[in-house]
Amino acid sequence: MQRLTTRNGLNLPAIGLGTWPMTGTECTQAVRQALELGYRHIDTATAYANEAAVGQALRDSEVPREQIHLTTKVWWDRLAPKAMRQSLEDSLRALGTEQVDLFHIHWPGQDWDLARSIETLVALRDEGKARSIGVANFPLGLLRQVVETLGAPLSAIQVEYHVLLGQPALLDYARRHDLLLTAYTPLARGQAAAQPVIQTIADKHGVLPSQVALKWLLDQDGVAVIPKASSRDNQLANLAALNVQLDDQDRLAIASLPKDQRLVSPAFAPDWDS
Ligand SMILES: NC(=O)c1ccc[n+]([C@@H]2O[C@H](COP(=O)([O-])OP(=O)(O)OC[C@H]3O[C@@H](n4cnc5c(N)ncnc54)[C@H](OP(=O)(O)O)[C@@H]3O)[C@@H](O)[C@H]2O)c1
């Protein structure tokens, strides 16, 4: 499996398994199966209410914990220092591990003390409860504040990114500041594969449209993907996306698709252009 690294120590497999919205036995089975098939990167969050199910799969699996990259996240209503600490403690207990590999703030807070939250995030890393830290769903302005004004040693950002939503500014910033960008909703929840342009490219190479959508992301420097898949066939197909070969003509055709189709923007989302 292709891996992505940062100079400050993050080292993660380029393809991970997204676990939302799976919970309970369905989630445990999907994660266990993914580990059997060769996945070594699992994405969860307290908000998904599935960390205990993921933890069960980790215990069931024969794959040693140290070979698995585990990401979790703290929800935006628990960003005050004590609450964030408690959230990570709860995650570690549910997951049955002493350290996660990557710990993200899931969304920016509302009326929050940004500096204190970031200080706590960094402290949790320094204490070894998280090997690396990052933020999700931060617009560029806020990310710059965290990295440049507060000097936080972030290793990654996680944002929505797929063939129908561009992220040129964040990607450029990430590359210049040694951050990996994890693309969530990388299949645009089926909408990527439904595009005739993507289907034509898939037919040309004799592969699946979903694989074209994933490989377009994977071909970009510093980009990891976390497609959610529950079935064995879909999990295998997504892993095999790494073998797809796209050419310049394909990339030109994909560039012509609209790049403003954001699928995830809840009421508490930040102003994306801020
Ligand atoms: N940080 C955040 O705020 C945030 C927000 C949203 C999502 N995420 C993370 O990103 C992960 C993925 O995002 P997502 O679940 O929104 O969307 P997605 O990965 O773009 O799409 C998931 C859907 O695609 C289907 N699928 C998977 N592989 C397929 C294949 N090879 N062919 C056809 N269909 C396929 C899945 O079906 P089956 O399950 O039936 O296989 C599922 O219905 C989440 O699970 C979560 O971990 C993070």
Question: Can you describe this structure?
Answer:
The chain is α/β, with parallel strands linked by helices and 274 residues long. The chain has one domain (11-187, 220-244): TIM Barrel, CATH 3.20.20. 39% of the residues lie in helices and 16% in strands. The chain has an eight-stranded parallel beta sheet with strand order 3-4-5-6-7-8-9-10. Helix 1 links the parallel strand 3 (17-18) and strand 4 (41-43). Helix 7 packs across helix 8. It starts with a strand and ends in a 19-residue tail after the last helix. The mean pLDDT is 98.
Structure summary, number of beta strands: 10
CATH architecture: Alpha-Beta Barrel
Main sheet properties: 8 strands, parallel
| CATH class assignment | Alpha Beta
Helical amount:
25-40%
In terms of DSSP E residues, the strand content is 15-25%
Structural topology:
Elements lengths: L2 E3 L5 E3 L3 E2 L5 H14 L3 E3 L7 H10 L8 E6 L6 H15 L4 E6 L8 H13 L3 E7 L3 H10 L6 E5 L7 H9 L3 E5 L11 H10 L3 H10 L4 E3 L6 H9 L7 H8 L19
The protein binds NADP nicotinamide-adenine-dinucleotide phosphate.
What keyword list fits this structure?
single chain; 274 residues; alpha/beta; TIM Barrel; two-stranded antiparallel ribbon; binds NADP nicotinamide-adenine-dinucleotide phosphate
